[in-house]
């Protein structure tokens, strides 16, 4: 998990939780941890967060860089993030 993830936990309490409070991961922490697994379903999940605007490229990049990863693994994830950034920008410019 990215550094400081406990400080970013999001409390959720409503009728659906019977007024009990659950702690949920911040979207950027969840996305970074899913991206480390690098399974297709996890990459699709992170892509959805990005395209729906629930997460920004900069947030994701920052969280991934705070993980304890090998240089090669960090390079792979940053390469994927950079490709997604180009893809999202291209999609945003299409009519």
Give an overview in words:
The protein has 95 residues and is mainly alpha-helical. A two-stranded antiparallel sheet has the order 1-2. The longest helix is centred in the C-terminal third of the chain and has 23 residues. The chain is globular. The mean pLDDT is 93.
What's this entry about, in short?
With 95 residues, the chain is mainly alpha-helical.
Distance between the termini: 38 Å
What is the number of E strands? 2
Strand order of the largest sheet: 1-2
Query: How much is the average pLDDT?
Result: 93
> What string gives the helices and strands in order?
EEHHHH
Radius of gyration: 15 Å
Query: Which outline best applies?
Result: globular
